[in-house]
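tokens incoming
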């Protein structure tokens, strides 16, 4: 990957991503060690539910990155457009992404609370009321968090972008450690899951550069911005079901998960994190890269896809050979998974990672409908495959390996046609 969007930014975001990944693993480790597998499955469902909704909110990150990037295309430093007061934009053709995010977050939180009576009891089998309230408030805050990441990426503010990621992860770890020390139990880990979503506010208070970036505008109407964002949110929501919300999908298609479900959820999470955590964190980098290389989109895909495939192939081998021992040694003798299962789950993570890269390319090309269709198609395929009359482990592997292939085909077809 070359160009102003990636040469210096990948290193900075890469370091932040590594720290974020370590922090995520630490939270999972503490939860798995502090809770038995059955309790961890309950925590895993909430972790997945929050990841599902915040993953959908990452559509705001994608849309903000693209629009701020295009608005500032006159210079690679992104200084062309600042606040509305300094831009000679036509009346009605200026949108403040952060203001839009505040409205979207408020509405989203209210919808979760308002509809919870119909679904919460089936998803959150313990601490139901607390889970709903934390999910609603955490999502409302994360809408602003994701949009701030987007405007920072669009403006090449990669140091602040990384700082926001690390602050989020650090807060989660701090609450998780406190939970273990004071014996808070499952409720404390629920708080730890959402605590980092206030990081955007802390960074705004601490960083003048971040406050400046938060005033950036897009040269389009709010309605147009929301229309593009809605496609991105729909697709990001579908992707989040596969990437973060998969435990919720397992719960919905399997009923009671129990201890076996806890082991499978932990195995899925551990095998995909090395690939998907960095890719999720680098969505801004990827979209900015594909916008810069919009003259030859398919060729621009080759390098990131090849990199993902090579790293993923090594991960499959490592998971097969060392995964079972690492799970037992790291999380306790109750967490037993064969090497073949861990290897296949890693292959599923590679498939989702490739789908993430092709999705970023379609967003950069403004192919919002194809982007949505690809992720929705992959999610529907995975959900249908989870209903096969197989054991839980087998159904999980088939869904995660085969489902993403549908979405990859849709994305590549749309890019080829343009």
């Amino acid at each position: 990957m070359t160009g102003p969007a990636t040469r210096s930014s990948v290193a900075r975001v890469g370091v932040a991503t590594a720290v974020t990944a370590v922090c995520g693993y630490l939270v999972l480790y503490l939860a798995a060690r502090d809770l038995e597998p059955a309790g961890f499955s309950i925590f895993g469902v909430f972790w997945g539910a929050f990841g599902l909704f915040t993953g959908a909110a990452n559509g705001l990150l994608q849309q903000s990155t693209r629009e701020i990037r295009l608005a500032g295309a006159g210079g690679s430093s992104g200084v062309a457009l600042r606040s509305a007061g300094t831009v000679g934009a036509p009346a009605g053709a200026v949108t403040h992404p952060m203001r839009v995010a505040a409205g979207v977050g408020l509405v989203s939180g209210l919808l979760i609370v308002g509809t919870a009576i119909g679904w919460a009891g089936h998803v959150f089998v313990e601490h139901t009321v607390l889970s709903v309230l934390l999910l609603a408030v955490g999502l409302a805050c994360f809408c602003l968090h994701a949009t701030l990441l987007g405007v920072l990426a669009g403006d090449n503010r990669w140091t602040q972008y990384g700082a926001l990621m690390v602050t989020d992860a650090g807060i989660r770890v701090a609450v998780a450690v406190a939970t273990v020390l004071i014996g808070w139990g499952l409720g404390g880990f629920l708080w730890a899951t959402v605590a980092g979503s206030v990081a955007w506010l802390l960074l705004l208070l601490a960083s003048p550069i971040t406050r400046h970036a938060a005033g950036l505008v897009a040269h389009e109407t709010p309605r147009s911005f929301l229309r593009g964002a809605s496609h991105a949110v729909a697709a990001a929501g579908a992707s989040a079901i596969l990437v973060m919300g998969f435990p919720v999908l397992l719960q919905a298609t399997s009923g009671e998960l129990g201890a076996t479900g806890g082991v499978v959820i932990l195995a899925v999470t551990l095998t995909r994190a090395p690939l998907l955590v960095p890719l999720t964190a680098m969505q801004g980098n990827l979209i900015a890269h594909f916008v810069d290389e919009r003259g030859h989109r398919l060729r621009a895909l080759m390098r990131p896809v090849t990199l993902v495939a090579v790293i993923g192939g090594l991960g499959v081998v490592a998971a097969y050979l060392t995964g079972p021992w690492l799970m037992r040694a790291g999380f306790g003798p109750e967490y037993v998974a064969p090497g073949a299962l861990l290897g296949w789950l890693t292959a599923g993570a590679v498939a989702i990672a490739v789908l993430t890269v092709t999705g970023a390319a379609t967003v950069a090309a403004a192919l919002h409908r194809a982007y949505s269709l690809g992720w929705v198609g992959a999610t529907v395929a995975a959900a249908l495959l989870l209903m096969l009359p197989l054991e839980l482990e087998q159904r999980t592997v088939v869904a995660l390996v085969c489902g993403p292939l549908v979405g990859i085909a849709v994305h590549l077809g749309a890019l080829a046609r343009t």
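note: Residues 74-89 have pLDDT under 50 and may be disordered.
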